[in-house]
C-alpha cells in the first residue's frame, strides 16, 4: 500500500564502509552497519525502529522508540518503547528504557533507568553457549 509504512520496516541503511561525522535524524526505520560520530535521533510521532548491527559503532546520543543493538554505542541511550540488547551489544553510557530485552553476552557500562510509566518490563534471554 502506497504511503503506508509498516511497523518494523527498515527504510534506510548506513553501510558497513560508511563513516558519518555529524548528527543523523530519521523517521521510520534505520539500520546502521557503519560508524557514526554524532547523535542518532528518531523524529516525528510515527513508530520508528533503529538497528545497530554487530559491525556498527555510534559515538553520541541515541534516541528511538524501538532500538535493537548488537554493536557498540558510546553515549546515552533513550528507548521510548522496546530496547533489545543482542549478545554482542556494548553500551558505554546511561540507558533509559520502557521495556528491556537483554541477551546473555550483552554489556552495559552505565546506569539502567526504567521509564516509570506503566508496569516495569524486563526480559532476560539466556543461552546455553
UniProtKB/TrEMBL annotation:
Pfam families per UniProt: Bactofilin
InterPro entries per UniProt: BacA/B
Lineage top rank: taxon: Bacteria
Family per similarity comment: Belongs to the bactofilin family.
Protein name: Cell shape determination protein CcmA
Species of the source: Noviherbaspirillum denitrificans
Taxonomic path: Bacteria, Pseudomonadati, Pseudomonadota, Betaproteobacteria, Burkholderiales
